[in-house]
Specification:
- The complex is a heterodimer of chains A (about 400) and B (about 450).
- Chain A has about 400 residues and is mainly alpha-helical.
- Chain A has a domain at about 35-95 and about 145-205 and about 235-380: ABC transporter involved in vitamin B12 uptake, BtuC (Orthogonal Bundle), CATH 1.10.3470.
- Chain A is about 70% helix and about 0% strand.
- Chain A has 16 helices and 4 strands.
- In chain A, a hairpin with a 4-residue loop joins β1 and β2 (about 220).
- In chain A, α3 runs parallel beside α10, α5 (about 95-110) packs antiparallel against α6 and α14 packs across α15 (about 340-360).
- The longest helix of chain A is centred in the N-terminal third of the chain and has 32 residues, at about 35-70.
- The mean pLDDT of chain A is about 85.
- Chain B has about 450 residues and is α/β, with parallel strands linked by helices.
- In chain B, α14 packs across α15 (about 375-380).
- Chain B is globular and about 65 Å long.
- Chain B has 15 helices and 19 strands.
- The chains are: A mainly alpha (about 400), B alpha/beta (about 450).
- At the A-B interface, α3, α8, β2, α13 and α14 of A face α1, β8, α10, α11 and α12 of B.
């Protein structure tokens, strides 16, 4: 018997998948039998679109994990900080020039000293830094309120890079060579610090972030009504434009990052670093710089997610909890898989929505269903759907 | 922040126009506090409080600290209360019950002698500490509590917690009365809960409330539809309730919660078919601002016309001296516009209530050192007091632990002449939001007088 299982392990696994799929299908068929087709389609649409935002959040967590092996519990608070920075630039008619200079200078200082402080002693680097400060400051302050999008995007970009680099330089870098668990605990501490910083800088009041507004009418984009399907589905089905925009941006980010990791030298270096930091260093890769880039990238991704979530429902400290809801998606897709993060996000989004559709009063959608799915998948595939299978030789 | 500044600058302007008498000199304290029979010079009265100042409810609770700070400074600047200086000691629990327990343990061990009265913020904290407060004989004041926190699991055992607002379940009952009394506005009323989870969110969903409402001809759906403060999309929950037959959606949520439901109704094109209502927190300024993200087809914000409980006076009711006074203090302390919410208002009221309780108790026992929790409880039980000149009523007769009066109000937006609600964007008061857009100015319109709430607990 043992030999049989060992020999047909792969086939048996797929058989298990097939049986599980059939059972899930039969269960859903039973549960959905008396539901209107329009509701089922609507739930699916909502799940996919919400899942897109989850996927984007998951991507930031995976990027850090992929490069450094650290599971970043501070990602939710990096979302809040990014969203708040965007809000600060987006809703202010006149940007403070000294403030913009300060932000640009701090960002360029952190960028130029990613390797060491001595980098700034080289005239060429000093010139680059000065040019960077000038360019960022101009882009953040040029024109009036009509250029608020430019101000906000550049300001958020600089702020996110600065946040990521500060976190890496002062908290993660000193832990290189220490057990990974120490760095994971450090991210918990970072989360609390960012929490405090956010409160001091922006307070705790809910903020309106009107980014999904039609500039011609100054109103939020109308929903898309799928009236053509009304007769066929037996009811109205709608699509929220802001969620579609968020979803498209998420896809763009994923495609961009897959390409970045696969085709750029920095991306390849990140992959190498994630495999073995010491080995990467021994072949001449600057592990410190790569880690710094990784944290900056993750902070920028978190900022995008924070802005999109804040634009969809309002900007508040609660946004940080979205990252907690994304953890099942990250584990489901596989901790190191960029594509897995996206697909995991979509799956968890759909599962949440259908759980809520079938039983909202017991919070099945948010508190139970995602974790049951995650548990089942991890039992079958401990590394997640697309995670790298690790073989440890003893 | 700038946009909100504009809004509140305008509100401040409105206040000054409406109440010229209050605009110049600092007015007298509006409450008729009991006369001090004991000189407390050299003593210190401490206002203890802790709760969620940085977690999910932070955006509504943070002005608590500001209001208590302002009240403490106000009294200390005038020689204190009966000569005693005021101070506050507080802690942020972040909405975490373990932190709540830890704060309670610290307070009760470090301030065992002085801690006779404690101010709490949330129902969950109240439920956690109910038995401990009774055991340690500490009176606790909270703005609104759940049945379990105030009356125990059986709903019949008054504890040491007192709430100034009516129980959420009683607020819901009074809303049902309002619906039943207005059949033209609410034909065939069926209420579905679309609400947050937890002790607060589900506090109105009790069989007793359902039965009471049914008796009035208002059906209540069995299953609440629950959503989280972090939800991006709640179309599924709203559609579930509507599919079940709801014509009125009722929510125990705040800030983004009601705004999200209202926005979803507009998305579905059902804003004129389905009524939205909620507990007292839905009437807060934050909802009026966040609800502007989505506009109805008539051009007004999605939350325009939402019903809610209003068991206390509101900022715009300037004929009341308590409101005038708090408004004046708010301006004098240069508080940020975002703090002009429910919490700031009610915290001034709670401090006033605490001061009166201390004065009466010290008068009765002879000195501050001699005051015990039991003495404070006896005072609170017997006290009939109009807090801050009528802003809230403090009366807990016959074992009551929550407020007994409520009224129903409607959230609307001011018209351009500031004489009433706008009927559309054409006649609405619109102010620049600081980023090229415009903001509507939210106002609250009371629809009923203060009425006794039905007592639905323990049924």
């Amino acid at each position: 018997m043992e030999e049989f299982f060992s020999r047909y392990k792969k086939e048996l696994t797929w058989l298990f998948y097939a049986i599980a799929t059939v059972l899930v299908f039969l269960f859903l068929r039973e549960q959905l039998a008396d539901k209107k087709a329009s509701r089922i389609v609507q739930t699916l649409i909502s799940g996919v679109l919400v899942g897109g935002i989850y996927g984007l959040v998951a991507l930031g967590i995976v990027v850090i994990n992929k490069a450094s092996g650290v599971f970043n519990f501070a990602h939710g608070w990096m979302m809040v900080v990014g969203g708040m920075i965007f809000w600060s630039f987006f809703t202010v008619a006149e940007i403070s020039v000294p403030g913009a200079v300060l932000l640009s200078t701090a960002t360029m200082f952190m960028v130029m000293t990613a390797v060491s402080l001595r980098s700034l002693l080289e005239p060429r680097n000093l010139l680059i830094a000065a040019g960077g400060v000038l360019a960022l400051t101009i882009l953040m302050t040029v024109g009036g309120i009509e250029l608020k999008w430019l101000h906000a995007i550049v300001g958020t970009f600089a702020g996110a890079i600065l946040t990521g680099l500060i976190v890496e330089r002062f908290t993660i870098r000193p832990l290189i060579g220490q057990p990974l668990f120490t760095a994971v605990l450090m991210t918990l501490a970072i989360a609390e610090v960012l929490h405090g910083v956010t409160q001091i800088a922006w307070g705790t009041v809910e903020l309106n972030l009107p980014i999904f507004v039609n500039p011609e009418t100054n109103r939020r984009f109308s929903v898309i009504r799928l009236d053509g399907l009304k007769d066929m589905l037996g009811g109205v089905t709608i699509v929220r434009v802001e969620l579609v925009i968020a979803f498209v941006l998420a896809i763009v980010a994923f495609v961009g990052f897959i390409a970045f990791f696969r085709y750029t030298s920095v991306g390849l270096a990140m992959r190498a670093t994630s495999e073995d930091q010491q080995l990467a260093q021994s072949v001449g890769l600057r592990v410190r710089v790569i880690l710094a880039i990784t944290w900056a990238v993750a902070a920028f991704l978190a900022s995008i997610a924070g802005v999109l979530q804040g634009g969809a429902v309002g900007l508040s400290l609660n946004i940080s909890f979205v990252a907690l809801r994304v953890f099942p998606a990250v584990l489901l897709g596989g901790l190191e898989s960029i594509g897995g993060a996206f697909i995991g996000g979509i799956i968890i989004g759909i599962v949440e929505q259908f759980g809520t559709f079938l039983n909202s009063s017991q919070q099945v959608g948010t508190d139970l269903a995602p974790y049951v799915v995650l548990m089942l998948v991890l039992v079958i595939r401990p590394d997640g759907l697309f995670g790298e299978k690790r073989i440890e030789r003893i | 922040m700038k946009r909100i500044c504009f809004l509140f600058s305008l509100l401040a302007m409105v206040l000054i126009i409406a109440a010229p008498a209050m605009a110049q000199d600092m007015m007298d304290y509006p409450s008729e506090l009991s006369e001090c029979q004991v000189d407390l010079t050299g003593e210190t009265l401490t206002i203890f409080h802790f709760g969620d100042l940085s977690g999910p409810y932070a955006f509504i609770t943070q002005p608590v600290v500001s209001a208590v700070t302002d009240a403490v400074n106000y009294w200390n600047g005038r020689g204190g209360v009966c000569g005693a200086m005021l101070q506050q000691i507080y802690e942020d629990t972040g909405g975490n019950l373990e932190a709540t327990q830890s704060a309670y343990d610290r307070f009760t061990s470090e301030y065992a002698e002085e801690l006779d009265l404690l101010m709490l913020y949330s129902s969950s904290d109240g439920e956690l500490l109910r038995e401990q407060l009774a055991e340690d004989e500490i009176v606790s004041i909270i703005s609104a509590g759940s049945i379990e926190s105030l009356y125990g699991e059986d709903g019949m055992t008054p504890g040491w917690l007192y709430a100034s607002n009516p129980l959420y379940i009683n607020q819901f009952g009074s809303f049902c009365e309002f619906v039943a009394a207005n059949p033209d506005t609410f034909p065939d009323p069926v209420i579905g809960f679309v609400t947050w989870p937890g002790a607060f969110g589900l506090a109105g969903t009790e069989p007793a409330a359902d039965a009471y409402c049914s008796g009035l001809g208002v059906e209540v759906l069995d299953e609440p539809q629950i959503f989280l403060p972090t939800d991006t999309d709640i179309l599924t929950q709203v559609q579930n309730a509507i599919d079940e037959g709801a014509t009125i959606l009722y929510t125990n949520s705040l800030a983004t919660g009601p705004a999200l439901i209202a926005g979803t109704l507009v998305d579905l094109g059902m804003e004129s078919d389905i009524t939205l209502a909620g507990v007292n927190w839905v009437m807060d300024t934050s909802v009026g601002i966040l609800g502007q993200r989505v506009l109805k087809p008539n051009g007004l914000p999605s939350v325009d016309g939402m019903y809610g409980s209003m068991p206390f006076l509101w900022w715009t009711e300037l004929s009341n001296p308590g409101i005038q006074f708090v408004t004046q203090q708010f301006a004098a302390n240069e508080r940020g516009p975002a703090e002009q919410n429910i919490a700031y208002l009610l915290s001034w009221a709670v401090v006033d209530s605490i001061i009166e309780t201390y004065i009466r108790t010290v008068n009765a026992v002879g000195s501050l050192e001699a005051v015990t929790g039991a003495d404070m409880r006896a005072t609170v039980d017997s006290m009939e007091y109009s807090v801050l000149g009528g802003l809230v009523s403090h009366s807990f007769p016959e074992g009551m632990r929550d407020g007994t009066l409520n009224r129903i109000a409607r959230l609307a937006y001011a018209n351009a002449t500031m004489t009433g609600p706008a009927s559309g964007p054409e006649d609405a008061l619109l102010i620049p939001d600081g980023s090229g857009g415009q903001l509507f100015v939210p106002i609250i319109i009371p629809l009923t007088d203060f009425m006794p709430v039905p007592q639905l607990r323990g049924q």
